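Lay summary. Proteins are chains of building blocks that fold into shapes, and those shapes determine what they do. In this project we predict the shape from the chain. Here is one chain we studied, written as its sequence of building blocks.
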Amino acid sequence: MRITRRDVAVALGAALCTCAAGAFAQGQKPVLGPAVWDWAKLDAKPTEVGALRDLVRQPTATLDELEMHVTTLNPGLASHPPHTHPNEELVIVREGTVEVLNGGSRKRLGPGSVIFNASNSPHALRNVGDTPATYHVINWKTPATPSN
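And here is the predicted shape, written in a compact code that computers can read:
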């Protein structure tokens, strides 16, 4: 049996596709399984506005991406200017007093308060208290998350 140029081209194409798929798979983070984060063991990295504790940013069994972090804001400071993003987000206030822009209005909230930032809805958060404000942020992306 004689090997033709076409046979070589097909074999080379298949090998390249296999290598590309392997490289793509290696770049993907593994699916998050059961996990816990011990508050006492979380590393607080200083930022210009306070501190950040990164928890996770990876896919789960049902989400394209789950991202969680904890932010601590110093008194009088904001995490960032008002902005939007396509993914939805929950913010849970752990301690302190914050003012949030949500749904077109500003609201003052304290410990235990929960904020839902809808997809592409302008939002912002600022520490309006005299002590640091700490809050948990949970973001997720699904196939239904807009790509903009």
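What the prediction tells us: The longest strand covers residues 50-58.
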